[in-house]
Amino acid sequence: MRADLVEQAAQIIKDPPILINMVSKRVRQIAQGHAPLVDRRPGLREADLALLEIIQGKITVQTINSL
After folding, report:
1. Please, which residues have CB within 8 angstroms of residue 16's CB and are 6 or more apart in sequence?
2. What would the pLDDT profile of 41-62 be if each residue is shown by its tens digit?
3. Which pLDDT band, with edges at 50, 70 and 90, does 67 fall under?
4. Distance (Å, rounded) from C-alpha 11 to C-alpha 38?
């Protein structure tokens, strides 16, 4: 997980346990075959994709449960 992405996502989701849970759930979803909501770039792992989705506003606390 890239530290710069963690810092950016932490500015959006202020509660660390919620951020951790969101990333964990989204990583599981992506690993199970759900399509990422952001462009997959070389070198990015599932956790990085989940963080980018949070940073770009593609997922929120409300939407992570419905994906």
Report:
1. 10
2. 999 999 999 999 999 999 998 8
3. low
4. 19
pTM of the model: 0.90
Q: Which residue has the tokens 């990085």?
A: 48
Q: Which string of DSSP letters, residue by residue, matches 6-65?
A: HHHHHHHS--HHHHHHHHHHHHHHHHTTPPPSSPPPTT--HHHHHHHHHHTTS--HHHHT
Closest alpha carbon to 51 in 59, 62, 41, 43: 59
> Helix, strand, or coil here: 66?
coil
